Amino acid sequence: MPGTLPVAIENYIALSAVIFFVGVAGVMLRRNPLIMLMSIELMWNAANLLFLAFSKMWLNNAGHVFAFLVITVAAAEAAIGLAIVVTVFRSAKHVDVDEVNLLKG
Amino acid sequence: MGRARTTRTRLVCGNAVMHHLMGIDGHYPLLLAIWLLPLLGAVACWTFGPQLGRLAGPLGSACTGAAFVAALSSWGDAMQKTSAGLGAHQHLGSWFPGFDFGLLLDPLALIWALIITGVGFLIHVYSIGYMAGDRAFARFFAYMNFFVFAMLTLVLADDFVLLLIGWGLVGLASYFLIGFWFERPTAVAAARKAFVINVLGDVAILFAIFIMFARVGSVGFADVFANPHALGGWLFATCACLFIGAAAKSAQVPLHTWLPDAMEGPTPVSALIHAATMVTAGVYLIARCWPLWSASPDAQVLAGTVGALTAFLGAILGMAQWDIKRILAYSTMSQIGYMIMGVGVGAYEAGVAHFFTHAFFKAQLFLGSGLIIHALAGEQDVRKMGGLRTRMPFAFWAMLVGVLAIIGFPGLSGFFSKDAVIYGALEHGHPWMYAVGIATAGITAYYMFRMLFLTFWGHYRGDAVGGQEHQPGPVMTVPVALLIVPTALAGWLLFGPASWWKRFLNGQFSGETLPAPVVSELSTTFIVLAVVAVGVAIAYLRYAGDAAMKDSKERLEREGARMPSVLVQAFYVDTALNILFVKTSQAFGTVFGRWFDPQFIDGAVRETVISSRWLGHLFRSFQTGLVRAYALIMVLGAACFIAYYAFSAGVR
User: Which domain holds residue A65?
Assistant: First the structure.
């Protein structure tokens, strides 16, 4: 075992999985786009947690680099997502994602 | 090896001349002037037609006339035999490196260039009067000049590709001119027919060029003619392809049917294109390719047979026509048959000489008939003419000289050249062509005098103008008068063993000495004259004798009604071609139009549409517009991926 972690790696994985599925459930169940964006954020950070845990475990800084990349992309995604939410709200006067179905086939 | 060497020795004489063909110095600006002046006239008449107005005629004539003067002044250089070769040469450019093209003026090209520009000039001047009343006066001269340019491209080319370009342009110009009066549906149909048949010839020549390129590796005259046997087994195929081109352009059986129809064009056009120049392009092609023809006896038999057949059939059909221009059209076809027979069997000098004299007397005849048609307000039916001898004395004398020249009256031009062709056929060992030639001479005498008697003898039978035909002005009569001189006298240039003609050609065709045939040239002349006299006598008895003069109008109507349908239908060649090509193409088209296209082409398109629509219906059901549903599908998809990799990792 090259690196040392305060607790066993399984704990990190389990926590990450829990956070990830909380995020998934949030996206799938909630109708408020703000909550959905926050849930997506949860999923990003579940991934980040694993990156950092494994990085520490293998003493390999690539994981840190990827965590920064994820944070950057997540910020961009949040900016675009919020912009879409604002635009939808301006035109539809509500933000219920189930009612926003202009692209329905 | 040994055989190859013998072949080469036999050809050494031809080689010497052909190597000369392409001048090396390659700079002769006068040649460019001959070539481009008519183009200049065409562009000017076309671009500035409305501004030029009536000046378009003199301008177009001047350009052609200037080209004639340029051709005349390059005479000496065209005759010159330098180390570089026979004639003058102007380099123009390269198709691609190593394949140059340019203009070449040797005696053969010069004789054509002189006729094209000289007779062309007279016809241009004549047209100023003939077309005076036409709305599209400038367009007419633009087309005429363009035709002269195209024809010069054809005869001045020094390789087969440039020749083919000229060949195609001539067909295009002919299309323009035949369809000049495009308000007439018949003229449009005739123009289209002429063009299609001409293009058939173009394609055949293209194939000949492919063969030459593949076998010789060059399309320049000098290279191809230097050793015809380089074509090997393809020699006859090359000649046959070239001959199809020549036959299409020169109205040889069975590709002649466009020529009588082409008479829909204005009469000066018929004189320029369908008598003096264009239709003799086939004669030029064979004369130009004489080394190939001399090397291939099969090609000689082919061209000679078709030529003799055309001469004979054209004359037969000439007997059955009532339209003065169609009579002349069939006589043209027949005379070109003579020329093709001459150059075909190897009597090149005689064949080209017949072109030379024919250009004069046929242009004369057409322009003379134009005088009559113009005076009678467009009447072309000889049954509605008659008695014009006293009313149009000038037209009568012009036509008389032309007719006497074409039937070979002693001393006039046709006498020398036609006998030379007929005798040439015998000399080169084709007695049956000789016999056909003599018979044709008799028939020619009959139908030409039939036309002359019907037009000028007896009483006026028409109702076109109440005795007030308008006489042509000097702009029309002077060119005809000028043509009378060569029509009458040009033949003397061919006379004698050391004739001017032989000196003019200056060894262009290096002939072999042939054994003297059974019948001498002098007896041939007498035989032909006897046959011609019989033809004239029959024509006189039928159309000008005292018995024939009684109730001539009714008699002619009865004769027209009794005319055998095989002659009226011109041996059903048109019908046969119609069934063979037009009808079969139409049937083919119908099958494809009714069955293949709707079933297969449309079916494929329809199936594509139906299946696309079905797929669209399928996929649009996925597009619920429910974001959370998309999210669910994404998650499920991701789960599938993960499951797959987890599972396969587990298996491994």
Answer: 10-91
Is residue B425 within 8 Å of B515, Cβ to Cβ?
no
Q: Assess A29–B contact: CB distance below 8 Å, yes or no.
A: yes
Domain that holds residue B165: 8-568
Domain-embedded: residue A83: yes
In a shared domain, residues B547 and B606: no
- Average pLDDT of chain B is 84
First to last CA, chain B: 76
Q: Would you say residue B202 has pLDDT above 70?
A: yes
Indicate the DSSP class of residue B93.
E
Task: Give the residue, B495 or B245, on which the prediction is more confident.
Answer: B245
Using an 8 Å CB-CB cutoff, list chain B residues near A29.
Answer: 628
Residues of chain A contacting residue B621, judged by C-beta atoms under 8 Å apart? 105
Q: Which residues of A touch B635 (CB under 8 A)?
A: 24, 28
pLDDT range class, residue B285, cuts 50, 70, 90: very high
- Cα–Cα–Cα angle for B389, B393, B395, nearest 5°? 95
Q: How many domains does chain A have?
A: 1
CB contact under 8 A, A27 and B631: yes
* Contact of B303 with B286, CB cutoff 8 Å: yes
Nearest to B623 among A97, A98, A105 (CB): A105
Minimal Cα–Cα distance from A29 to chain B, Å?
7
CB contact under 8 A, A105 and B626: no
| B91 lies in the same domain as B233 | yes
The model's pTM: 0.76
| Minimal C-alpha gap between B635 and chain A (Å) | 8
Question: Rounded distance, CA B395 to CA B366, Å?
Answer: 11
Which residues have CB under 8 Å from A50's CB, separation 6+?
A12, A13, A16
Predicted confidence (pLDDT) at residue B27 exceeds the cutoff of 90: no
Distance CA B406, CA B418 (A): 9
Nearest CA in chain A to B628: A28
CATH number, residue A15: 1.10.287.3510
B635–A101 C-beta distance less than 8 A = no
Closest Cα in chain B, distance from residue A61 (Å): 25
| Alpha-carbon gap, residue B79 to B506, rounded angstroms | 7
Give the torsion sign (CA, A2, A8, A14, A16): negative
For residue B94, the SS3 value is: strand
Into how many domains does chain B fold?
Answer: 2
CB contact under 8 A, A105 and B632: no
Higher pLDDT, A83 or B572: A83
Given this model, what pLDDT does residue B85 score? 66
Collect all residues of chain A within an 8 Å Cβ-Cβ radius of residue B626.
97-98, 101
Residue B573 lies in a domain: no
* Contact criterion met (CB < 8 Å) for A102 and B625: yes
